[in-house]
């Protein structure tokens, strides 16, 4: 043997309160669901779990579409599935860009030879429907990609009415809801969304690695008539057969992770028990309370307009003279709370603080505000 066995030593992991833009801590029942037995992808229990998940996805996206399922992979797998199944090489994708995830959509589309048009605005605001209509009318793209909640900027985009605008010009509407789903109101059918994806590690309080997606009837028809070949792993036609989206099919496409299947099922079960309305209300109330506490501190909101602020992730600018990494390190070491620095357009410009899922409570909001107040005071004293 030319390569000896490695000495892999176990080590202790200390759990912190995860209050960045994701992941967040798990629901206790989701943690328990991860320990359920590994089962065959061809047994009745497995099929029942998939049916339960599809029912939960219809509920959380608020859609009657049958083309709903979950992709084996992180939120990026949902992004790649939605883009590659609906926009082929030489077709046009208009990307409304205000944060890093729109940039990722550009990178995905670019690798598949898709023609890309970028409409960019300031990172701390959102698009008006009027400016989006001007772009759609001008370019008549195959699809418009837009992020609902953006975890890199802490903004939430108004979508009501955008689907009608897109359809008027023969354009499909593709939406990223990774950090907003479950924490912010979203209505796929009522808003005319044609394809949407999310992930489990944010407001659903599950582990990353499995991503709900849904396609409208209009999108399904586009896929049916497409001339281009989809990536095999993300081929929604094959996946729909595995997930039995249209009945009487239990096609084997790939082996999904049973722990993640159980976890997603439990995330959706918990949300169904609480109900979407109560979850949205809880997230809004908790974040309002946190923002009230923040306003007593020498911090500034990165997003100046309250109507543009996301309920699940808050971006905050530190006063001049403070170092973002120092504040983050102090909060984690002293208070056992994990918060994140800015990413992409907000790097070195903001803290990113997530209060979502199981962590969306008044107690967590107070703990965060207290930790930030302590850090600001302690780091000033140490610098003197």
From TrEMBL:
It catalyses: glyoxylate + L-alanine = glycine + pyruvate. Its cofactor is pyridoxal 5'-phosphate. InterPro entries: Aminotrans_V_dom, Aminotrans_V_PyrdxlP_BS, PyrdxlP-dep_Trfase, PyrdxlP-dep_Trfase_major, PyrdxlP-dep_Trfase_small, SP_NH2Trfase/AEP_transaminase. It holds the Pfam family Aminotran_5. PROSITE patterns: AA_TRANSFER_CLASS_5 (PS00595). Substrate binds at residue 352. The keyword Transferase applies. The keyword Hydrolase does not apply. Keywords: Aminotransferase, Pyridoxal phosphate, Transferase. One of its GO terms (biological process) is glycine biosynthetic process, by transamination of glyoxylate. GO terms for molecular function: alanine-glyoxylate transaminase activity; L-serine-pyruvate transaminase activity. It comes from the Eukaryota. The modification N6-(pyridoxal phosphate)lysine is found at residue 202. GO terms for cellular component: peroxisome. Its EC number is 2.6.1.44. Residues 45-343 form the Aminotransferase class V domain. It is an enzyme of class 2 (transferase). PANTHER family: ALANINE--GLYOXYLATE AMINOTRANSFERASE, AMINOTRANSFERASE CLASS V. Belongs to the class-V pyridoxal-phosphate-dependent aminotransferase family. This is Alanine--glyoxylate aminotransferase. The gene is LOC106115834.
């Amino acid at each position: 043997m030319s390569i000896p066995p490695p000495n892999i030593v176990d080590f202790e992991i200390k759990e912190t309160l995860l209050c960045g833009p994701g992941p967040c801590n798990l629901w206790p029942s989701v943690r328990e669901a991860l320990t359920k037995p590994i089962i065959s992808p061809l047994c009745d229990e497995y099929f029942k779990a998939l049916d339960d998940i599809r029912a939960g996805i219809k509920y959380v996206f608020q859609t009657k579409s049958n083309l709903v399922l979950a992709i084996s992979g992180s939120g990026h797998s949902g992004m790649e599935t939605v883009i590659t199944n609906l926009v082929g090489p030489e077709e046009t994708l208009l990307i409304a860009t205000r944060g890093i995830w729109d940039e990722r959509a550009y990178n995905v589309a670019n690798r598949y030879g898709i023609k890309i048009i970028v409409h960019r605005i300031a990172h701390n605001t959102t698009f008006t429907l009027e400016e989006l209509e001007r772009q759609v009318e001008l370019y008549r793209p195959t699809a418009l990609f837009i992020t609902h909640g953006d975890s890199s900027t802490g903004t939430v985009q108004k979508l009501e009415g955008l689907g009608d605008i897109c359809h008027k010009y023969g354009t499909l509407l593709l939406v990223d809801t990774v950090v907003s789903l479950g924490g912010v109101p979203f209505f796929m059918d009522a808003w005319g969304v044609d394809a949407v994806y999310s992930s489990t590690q944010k407001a659903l309080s599950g582990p990353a690695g499995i991503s709900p997606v849904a396609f409208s009837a209009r999108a399904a028809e586009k896929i049916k008539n497409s001339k281009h070949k989809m990536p095999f792993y993300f081929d929604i036609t094959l996946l729909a057969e595995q997930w039995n989206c249209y009945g009487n099919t239990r096609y084997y496409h790939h082996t999904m992770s049973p722990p993640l299947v159980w976890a997603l099922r439990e995330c959706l079960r918990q949300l169904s028990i609480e109900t979407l309305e109560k979850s949205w209300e809880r997230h809004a109330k908790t974040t309002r309370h946190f923002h009230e506490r923040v306003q007593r501190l020498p911090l500034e909101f990165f997003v100046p307009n309250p109507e543009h602020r996301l309920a699940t992730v808050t971006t905050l600018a530190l006063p001049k003279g403070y170092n973002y990494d120092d504040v983050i390190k102090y909060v984690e070491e002293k208070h056992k709370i994990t918060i994140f620095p800015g990413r992409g357009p907000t790097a070195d410009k903001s803290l990113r603080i997530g209060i979502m899922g199981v962590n969306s409570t008044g107690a967590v909001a107070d703990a965060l505000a207290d930790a930030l107040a302590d850090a600001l005071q302690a780091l000033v004293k140490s610098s003197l």
